[in-house]
Structure prediction request, 739 residues.
Amino acid sequence: MAYAKRFDGRKFDELRPITAKVGIIPRADGSAMFQIGKTTAYAAVYGPRDLHPKFMQNPQTGILRCNYNMMPFSGHGERVRPGGSRRSKEINMVMEKALIPVLDLKDYPNSVVDVFVELPQTDAGTRCAGITAAAMALADAGLEMKDLVAAVAVGKVGDKVVSDLIYDEEAYEEEGGATDIPVAVLPRTGEITLLQLDGGISPSDLKKALELAQVKCREIYEIQKKALKQKFVVKA
Amino acid sequence: MSEALLIKDKEIAVPGEIIAQGMGFVPNKGVFRDGDVLVASKLGMVSVEGKVVKLIPLSGKYIPKAEDKIICQMTDVLLTGWRVDTNSPYSAVLNLKDATNEFVARGADLTQYFALGDWIVCKVTNVTSQKLVDISTRGPGLHKLQGGRMVEVNAYKVPRIIGKDASMISLIKNATGCEIIVGQNGLVWLHGAPSQELIAAEAIKKIEAEAHLPGLTDRMVDFLKQKTGKTPTMNEQHQTTEGSES
Amino acid sequence: MNNEQKKHLITYLANGTRYDGRGLLEWRPIHVETGVSQSAEGSARVRVGKTDIMAGVKLALEKPYGDTPDQGNLMVNAELYPLSSPKFETGPPGEQAIELARVIDRGIREAKTIDVKKLCLKSGEKVWSVSVDIVTLNDDGDLMDAGALAALAALQAARFPGVKEGIVDYGERTSTPIPIDMHPVTVTVYLIDKYFVVDPLPEEEEAADARLTIAVDEHGMVRALQKGGAEKLTIDQIDKMVGIAVKKAPELRKLIK
Prediction:
């Protein structure tokens, strides 16, 4: 039997309901919240600031450092033990690579821009929500950026190309199962800065999925834009 | 080719947003050209003067530049000077010779001049390409800050807090009777009676929040009048204690 | 903070006010919100002024400890996230986080907040284990009291997950709450010079000579204490601080009932 109807009733190319807000953490130099369905990411930016340890300093440019963490109670099942894992280390790295192409930190030699992402609740797509929130937080911090970055997972569930998978879809086991492809897109040019995949997909469906990611990331960008501008609307 | 301004003067643009199209426009700070469009490269308020389009930043860290008057805190005592926190990504060094013209014997206790935790108002004298920063406390209006309290604001709002020819800050000073020193690095030092300092601090925070909206001076006059019960006056004479307009 | 800066802060206290215009024993506006994480069995977010803290409860089935075969387990953990302050760093919990967790743990445990006997499914074999995680979102002072309040609010909001053939089914949520008998809240009283304050701003935390965290239950009983700060306290001062806590505790408790 084909995957005829999504578990949560959405259309195959439909995103879950989204809310976004900028400036949620007053102590930070920039911050944002991005919620898509039951996945919520908070991002805070500190910096540019002094970088320790000193051997990591780069005299040519400031560096970007990402730190992704799921709160202990944010998992799908049992409590998530606090502290880094191999998984979170890899996510830190791909987040940095997803964001650095738009950032220009040359004016800040030897310094670091720290991005912290915390997730209080999750239902798949956490790295994408993290990147989307982080991009807003970096803009809020007043950093030089050629573009924002928006991210969403696309993929295949059964025989259908879909956007924004949930846990239950990732766990789909019939007809070849599910393929999960987290993608980050620079909304203006459509270029891709995060791309991972697990599952199995034909090259032609992959292209279809990536084109869908482009369209969906531009939808997300409109929400990011609105949230950033909203911060400067002062209640009279 | 059609020419159009897609985001109007004084409106907010976000990174990657196309502000204008057409080769006639000239990009300036915070804006870059890509083909026939001008794109925002940071979050800011669009400013259009003739054909020149730039962005006025609304947030971000202070970056030291020479001649700025800033407020710093002593974080370490060195062999021949002090390490200070500049409320920016870069710390600065205050050399003994830039702190006093007294003769200081080798090995003397430097904390008799400045101790750890002391606040100073100083001037940035030099910033290298690698952001090594030198400061000085020698000069008019530069000194240690005795007591008082600090209010932190967005460094980009400092010009509005000071106002044209220091008009805004003198308004607050006259209304509250507080001593106020505004550092370009976003630190504002207040010294006065607690009840008056509270009014001054609230006024400064109000300017910070509403700096990008029109009619600021009128609103501040009303605010101070309501808080102090008297109409505040603007001081015509130039005040030397606050940071210069940037 | 140097001596002159501290003296300046004390001038405010002597005038009965503080850097944000509050009275000495006055709290900033407090907002309690529950259900902030649908992944947790119970969750709450507490905002005290700009201080912002969350607590989440996870429930699991475990083997009881040998010496308490018919009792469930309680664990309280706290993380001071670097997202919430430039002063916090990544890595394992430091002294401040551990103190925060342990003091809140003691308050909940000693007040017999949870009837742990009711958490036993099968003596010696299967009991519920309650994990409370307290995490910071924005530090603007008074994390201890805000954290304790968030922990209690999250415990109250928690509902047991379903159980199928002895295994927890986290996809199902029952309507059964955790058996909560008592509602201890903590009030931390700070001593600055000769003045007592509650709900400190970061500057006040820095200027404080000593602090005393006091967990108080609804009968006005003291359930946990923790003295902090570099200076000493007299019995008379402690008596006054406890008096303040007992008087102020109901203000906090009514926010979560």
Residues 237-246 of chain B have pLDDT under 50 and may be disordered. The CA atoms of residues 46 and 55 of chain B lie 5 Å apart.
